[in-house]
C-alpha cells in the first residue's frame, strides 16, 4: 500500500471531520489510529499510542504547562486584571480613548501572569466593556479593542501557545518566552497609537471623560502602586528566567506560589470557594490541553510514517524561488487555516511539515515561532472561528453579538499586519533578548 496516499487521505479526512465539528483531540486520535493500523497493524497502532502517551507526559517541558496555567487562574481569581486596568487608566488619563488604551496596556500587563488569551479577553470583557459603555464609547470600537488586546497573551510570556510550540518543535520554551516580550510590547504600543489616532479623528468613538480632567500627579502615582503585584510577580518570573536564576519549570512553580501568596494576602483567595474555582479551572484547562497535545503528537507520528513531512520539505526546498516566497506561502496558509480551524489545530497539523522546511531554508527557529505566534493572534480574532471574539461575546453580556465583535476588530488586525511586517523586516526585535539571556 502507498504510504503517501494513505497520508494524503488521512489529512483530507482530518480536515473534513474538523469542518463537521468533531472534537480536535478525538479527531487526531481517530485518524492517526486508523491510519497507523492501515499502514502497519492494529496492535502496532495500539502500542504506538501507549508509547506516545507515556513519552509525551514524561517530557520535562510538560510540567511547565500546568504550573503556568495554575498561575494564571490564581492571578485572575486574585483580581490582578482589575488592578492593572484601574492603574493604567489613571496613567492614561486625559489621553484620547484612555479606557481603550488602558485595556491594551492592562491586557499586556495581565498577560505577564496569565498565559491564556481567552482568559484575558474574557476577564477584560467583564471589566473594561461595562466601563466603556458607561462613558458612551462606540460599541464596536470597545469590543474590537478588548478582543484584540486579549490576544497579547499569546505573545507575552508565560504564553501557553509558546509552550505548545516548544513541545511540537523542541525549541527551548525559555528562549521563546524571552522572544515574545519585545514584540508583545510593540503590539500594545501600536494598538495604543491607533486608538489615540482614531479617537482624535472621530471623538464619537471615545468621548472625553470629564473626571479625567481632575487627575493630578498624585493620582498617576497611585496608578503605579496599583500595578505592584503584577510588576513584582511578572518581573520575578520573567527576570529570573532571563537572568538564569531558574528554568522555565522553576519559574512556573515560583509564579504559581507567588500568585497564591499574593491572592491570600490580598484577600480574594482567602475564600475557599474562590480558591477551589481557580484550582478546578486550571485542572480542566490542563487536562484538555494534555489530551489535545498527546493526540496531536500521535497524529504527527502517523504523518512521519507516511513520509509526507520529509517529501514536502524536499519538494519546497528544491524550488528555484527566493526563500521569503516560501515563508510567505506558509504564512498565507496559516492565515487561511486560522479562519476555519482553531490555532492549536492548525499548528499541530502543519508544524511537523513546515518547521523542517523553515529551518532547512536557514530561518532562525525562535524568530519563526514568534512570527507564527503573530499569525495566532490574528487567527484568534478573525471570523468565523476567532476564539477570542467568542470568549468576549460570552463574557460581555447578552446584548453583545458576535458579529459586532468581528466588525470591530479589523482596524486592530491592520495593526497586527503592521507589526508583522516590522518583525519580518527586523528579526533582531525578536532575537535580542533570547540571545542575551543567561
UniProtKB/TrEMBL annotation:
Residues 12-429 form the TRAP C4-dicarboxylate transport system permease DctM subunit domain. The keyword Transport applies. It is a multi-pass membrane protein. Keywords: Cell inner membrane, Cell membrane, Membrane, Transmembrane, Transmembrane helix, Transport. InterPro entries: DctM, TRAP_DctM. It comes from the Bacteria. PANTHER family: C4-DICARBOXYLATE TRAP TRANSPORTER LARGE PERMEASE PROTEIN DCTM, SIALIC ACID TRAP TRANSPORTER PERMEASE PROTEIN SIAT-RELATED. Belongs to the TRAP transporter large permease family. This is TRAP transporter large permease protein.
Amino acid at each position: 500500500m502507498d504510504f503517501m496516499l494513505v497520508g494524503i487521505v488521512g489529512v483530507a479526512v482530518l480536515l473534513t471531520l474538523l469542518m463537521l465539528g468533531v472534537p480536535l483531540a478525538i479527531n487526531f486520535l481517530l485518524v492517526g489510529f486508523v491510519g497507523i493500523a492501515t499502514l502497519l497493524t492494529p496492535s502496532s497502532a495500539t502500542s504506538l499510542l501507549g508509547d506516545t502517551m507515556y513519552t509525551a507526559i514524561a517530557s520535562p517541558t510538560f510540567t511547565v504547562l500546568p504550573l503556568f496555567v495554575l498561575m494564571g487562574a490564581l492571578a485572575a481569581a486574585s483580581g490582578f486584571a482589575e488592578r492593572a486596568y484601574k492603574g493604567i487608566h489613571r496613567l492614561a488619563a486625559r489621553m484620547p480613548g484612555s479606557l481603550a488604551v488602558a485595556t491594551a496596556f492592562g491586557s499586556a500587563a495581565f498577560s505577564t501572569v496569565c498565559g491564556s488569551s481567552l482568559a484575558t479577553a474574557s476577564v477584560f470583557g467583564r471589566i473594561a466593556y461595562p466601563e466603556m459603555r458607561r462613558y458612551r464609547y462606540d460599541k464596536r470600537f470597545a469590543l474590537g479593542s478588548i478582543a484584540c488586546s486579549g490576544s497579547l497573551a499569546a505573545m507575552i510570556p508565560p504564553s501557553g501557545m509558546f509552550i505548545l510550540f516548544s513541545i511540537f518543535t523542541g525549541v527551548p520554551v525559555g528562549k521563546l518566552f524571552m522572544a515574545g516580550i519585545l514584540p508583545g510590547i510593540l503590539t500594545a504600543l501600536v494598538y495604543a497609537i491607533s486608538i489615540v489616532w482614531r479617537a482624535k479623528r472621530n471623538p464619537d468613538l471615545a468621548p472625553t471623560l470629564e473626571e479625567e480632567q481632575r487627575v493630578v500627579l498624585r493620582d498617576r502615582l497611585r496608578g503605579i502602586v496599583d500595578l505592584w503585584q503584577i510588576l513584582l510577580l511578572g518581573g520575578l518570573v520573567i527576570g529570573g528566567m532571563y537572568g538564569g536564576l531558574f528554568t522555565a519549570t522553576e519559574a512556573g512553580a515560583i509564579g504559581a506560589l507567588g500568585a497564591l501568596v499574593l491572592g491570600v494576602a490580598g484577600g480574594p483567595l482567602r475564600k475557599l470557594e474562590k480558591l477551589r474555582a481557580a484550582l478546578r479551572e486550571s485542572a480542566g484547562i490542563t487536562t484538555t490541553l494534555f489530551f489535545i497535545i498527546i493526540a496531536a503528537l500521535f497524529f504527527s507520528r502517523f504523518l512521519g510514517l507516511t513520509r509526507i513531512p520529509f517529501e514536502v520539505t524536499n519538494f519546497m526546498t528544491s524550488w528555484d524561488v527566493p526563500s521569503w516566497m516560501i515563508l510567505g506561502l506558509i504564512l498565507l496558509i496559516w492565515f487561511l487555516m486560522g479562519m476555519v480551524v482553531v490555532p492549536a489545530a492548525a499548528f499541530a497539523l502543519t508544524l511537523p511539515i513546515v518547521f523542517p522546511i523553515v529551518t532547512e531554508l536557514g530561518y532562525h527557529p525562535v524568530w519563526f515561532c514568534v512570527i507564527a505566534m503573530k499569525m495566532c493572534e490574528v487567527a484568534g480574532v478573525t471570523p468565523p472561528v476567532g476564539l477570542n471574539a467568542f470568549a468576549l461575546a460570552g463574557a460581555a453580556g447578552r446584548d453583545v453579538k458576535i458579529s459586532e465583535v468581528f466588525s470591530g476588530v479589523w482596524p486592530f488586525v491592520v495593526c497586527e499586519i503592521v507589526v508583522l511586517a516590522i518583525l519580518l523586516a527586523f528579526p533582531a526585535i525578536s532575537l535580542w533578548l533570547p540571545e542575551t539571556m543567561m
